[in-house]
Batch of 2 targets.
Target 1
Amino acid sequence: MAAEQGQWLLMATARSPTNIAVIKYWGKRDEALILPINESISITLDPDHLSATTTVAVSPSFDRDRMWLNGKEISLDGGRFQSCLREIRRRAEDVEDEKKGIHIRKEDWERLHVHIASYNNFPTAAGLASSAAGFACLAFSLAKLMNVKEDCGELSAIARRGSGSACRSLFGGFVKWTMGNVADGSDSTAVQLASEAHWDDLVVIIAVVSSRQKETSSTSGMRESVETSSLLHYRAKEVVPSRILQMEKAISCRDFATFAKLTCADSNQFHAVCLDTSPPIFYMNDTSHRIINLVEKLNQFEGEPQVAYTFDAGPNAVLIAKNRKTASLLLQRLLFYFPPPTGSELTSYLLGDKSILQESG
Ligand code: DP6
């Protein structure tokens, strides 16, 4: 390592958006490798609004691996960070920077330490899938720094080791996380079903019902569901496989009515699984239920689905409107029934775009 004598610093930066599942992942068949009990499909949002930006740096002067999240140092002790770092280091290659006179041989990566600084451009505490964006970005930026040659599919299997849903954020547009067959989980990866350009008239609106941190994390919630919910096992075996096929077809044909029916049904079944867990897990609240009613009524009035709703492990609503016209109608209704507190900022934007709508209650 020629540059070992001097003080030098090499950096790489990446940005990854978060993603929203329309067919949910809920339950692991292998906790350590983070392998799912069913396939899932998601939409990756626009990085301009909900994304993580991560800078990773390496220098011989660093005496240990360290990480800062939104400017605050966090522990890297958790097994998930360590397995992402280990997997990337194993694949690291030689790095040459002629200008700086840096030559890192692949074997040097084992003893060089990294510093990681990650920022979310949205409130981390708001329950908006920040770990998906964060781990996708961590895997991608480390791979860039260490000259890892693997493609995004292979990197998705590494991001998955950080947080299951993170693997889907390695791709834009519509993404499927496959089950995989091999024991080490290397083929449980994300694949892009279609780019965002394929169906760019969809509008995603996020209604922030509560910015409080959830009481039951996804990780522990799904573990409890696997252990206690018979509905979860029925869902994984009998329901999701055919839903995945139908959803793939709906996306490929841009069939919004089918897309919306499947999205809403899958969100509702996921929350039914949470209720079927012992003790039951309540992620949605009264406001979430009122938003579901509002969308159901709007769809009934229009004669066919114009808006889909989906809720993750929290009360915030992700609403997907068929087009801009429907989105503006939906926003009007939301503003009427859930007026934001005076002085709050309300913005709306397109796929990838999302409105953060603050509800006063
Ligand atoms: C409800 O990916 O956060 O958002 O793999 O334990 O980190 P871990 O869980 P996580 O779970 C996401 C669950 C979900 C559904 C989904 O995104 O598919």
Target 2
Amino acid sequence: MSGHSGTGGRRALITGITSQDGAYLAALLLDKGYRVTGTLRPGGTPISAAWRLAEMGLTGRVTSVTVDLTDARAVSWLLDDHAPDEIYHLAAHSSVHSSFHVPAETFASNAVSTTNLLEVIRTRHPEARFYHASTSEMFGDAPEVPQRETTLFRPRSPYAVAKVAAHQMTTLYRLAYGLFCVNGILFNHESPLRGPEFVTAKIVRRLVRWQGGAEDAPITLGRLDARRDWGYAGDYVRGMWSMLQAGAPDDYVLASGCTWSVRDFVGLTAQTLGLRLEWRGKGTAETAIDLDSGRTCVTVDAALFRPAEVGELRGDSGLARERLGWSPTVDLPALVAMMVAAEKARQAAASAS
Ligand code: GDP
């Protein structure tokens, strides 16, 4: 890797620092000697903002600033005040499901904020390096499997449309103005810090409660056949950092290269917990029975289906492996084991207090 020489004393700005990726990235950058500033969105509650930083032991180690990134002047002040060497733009409306309910807000949050940051970099901070959090959701109804940097985007949600706009704007500023702007096209990545609005954290949380006898009602899920390429967030933030250390800016896919269904994820979680589940029925009548108790543990609710679903998402991260030396270290069974262990510890601590 060339480009930046030592990282000691460098300044990093992470938008959306209280997100899963923000917390993992902040920990990585602090370890490398960066000074880290992170943005919080106005209106977020202090508790929801702080828990991930606390879990990572980062409380008091990063500077936090509340800023509305859709406000161009506020973005200008932010960059003038903190003069970051590297900017990691992770802040976004990140739930695909809820983006169907708030499309305009999603577009402003994801596309306008990115444009504001790029414009301030162009006009006032052209030396800053910029990472934009693109996403595999942009591939949508993808014309090829696996998807790579050259695959056509056919977005299938307001979230994905907004991310395509932000992605293209980032590429444009690189090509038109020669700025160091990159897109990381990250496939789904999970961890013990994942929020319960995502299917992996929901399944882990509910099945741990089920196994501990704290849950009687079946877990209700949407499409069990949906397939994703799931990796570990800790691996993916390492890739983000590598993209900004490269000799030249470019866009990279980060993915595990393996694909699993939501049903597979339930099965892996159950297996990790020692639960014996059996799938019965088809479509919306499909259920999973807990063979030891004979009770229904999982049901399907069509209300959780999305108005449009993406096709099979499986990424080819060959370019990142070749040019950045990046590769994932945690496969899905290991990731599930990590999420289950953390959730058990969390639930044990909550019931002890
Ligand atoms: P996404 O890839 O960013 O949308 O991540 P999610 O974890 O929200 O969803 C992954 C896949 O799981 C999607 O295809 C969903 O349709 C599917 N899915 C099935 N049941 C559920 C559920 O109960 N909650 C969520 N969030 N997704 C579900």
